[in-house]
Amino acid sequence: MPTLAMAQSAFDGTWKIDLNKLKMPDKPTVLLLHNGMFQCTTCVPAINVKADGTDQPVSGNPYFDMMAVKVVNDHTIQETEKKAGKVVSDSTTTVADDGKTAAFEFTDSNTNNPEPVTGKGTMTRVAKGPAGSHAISGSWRTSGYGNVSDNALTRTYKVEGDSLNMSALTGESFTARMDGSESVYSGDPGTTSVSLKKLGTHAIQETDKRDGKVISVAKMTVAPDGQSMTITIDDKLHGTTMSFVAMKQ
Fold it and tell me: Most exposed of 49, 152, 180, 189 (fewest Cβ within 10 Å)?
């Protein structure tokens, strides 16, 4: 037991994601706003609602059950999501005049933390939408985030015996043994359980599930100097991969 705890001590502490070291998924998001309807065919589950600014029912999403899409002008849309009548997230996306890029900003209250997650980012167009559709239509790849609130970027880890504790300012947390057994994941409506597997003195594999189904597999590797942690995520729901680097605080 003492040997295991010492080997995993490299993870102990608070870590913050460096937005300049994000590698976003290559797979694009496909949107269509045409004839009064808004569609996201790559969302899971797919979205197909009226774009008239009124609340539209959405099923199968653990984070929201209503969605309103408002067309502000021919380059800008606003999205508002609700769960049980309460607004849990909203965003505004504006396509540049040349149609090649888009900027978005968002607020997300889908966590137990009283302070919402806020942020801004940009997207790059991969393919155009059909003729006559709104400028938001087409395929987009997220190119990066220029600003995200600290509560979404930080995680605190602590090894105790053969278990790892994780806590976040968003209210997410878990305590799981590093032997592959499942434990409860708290604070995220879309993640119900987690299992951890020790891969070495500086590496852990995390598997997240929703109602028994694997939704993502992440590998966390602490650098030899203990000052940075590289996290690679295989998103099973969307069929994408991404990676980022967190710095020891």
Answer: 180
User: DSSP code of 20?
Assistant: G
Which structural domain range is residue 166 located in? 2-21+153-248
Distance between CA atoms of residues 235 and 243, nearest Å: 11
| pTM exceeding the 0.85 threshold for the entire prediction | yes
Cβ distance 248 to 13 under 8 Å? yes
Same domain for 117 and 169, yes or no, is no
Residues 6+ apart with CB under 8 A from 126: 28, 138, 139, 140, 141
The three state secondary structure string of 132-144 is CCCCCCEEEEEEE
Domain tally, the chain? 2
Residues 106 and 10 in one domain: no
Tokens of 4: 């295991």
The secondary structure of residue 151, as a DSSP letter, is G
Token reading at 83: 């769960």
